[in-house]
Specification:
The protein is mainly α. The chain contains four helices and no strands.
Amino acid sequence: METTQLQQYLPVLMLAVLAVLATVGMLLGSVALGRSARSNKMKDTAYECGMLPVGEGSTRLSVKFYLVAMLFILFDIEVVFLYPWAVVYKDMLVQNATLILGAMLSFLGVLFIGYIYALKKGALDWKG
């Protein structure tokens, strides 16, 4: 018996239907069981180590914090690209040394220009 390509997707369809049914069942179950629980205002307040919560729950952070975080991610990804290059560098030196070195130097050059741009814009200056 030969199976068609559409029949091969039947288990995937069954899994998707099961996932949707389980999700809907859990949501409906939590709504049904959640209504039966009795709560009052004191139970619904946030618990802060025995202290009554006063003021905002979280403070706003400066935009500079997020900018430094994005720069960190950028340079972290740079290391992710540098590691495989360093692993195969010796093997590729035999085939085409100038190509692999030139590609990495151009990659580092673009990142260095971005770093200089961030420094000139004051992205790493916390006081400003």
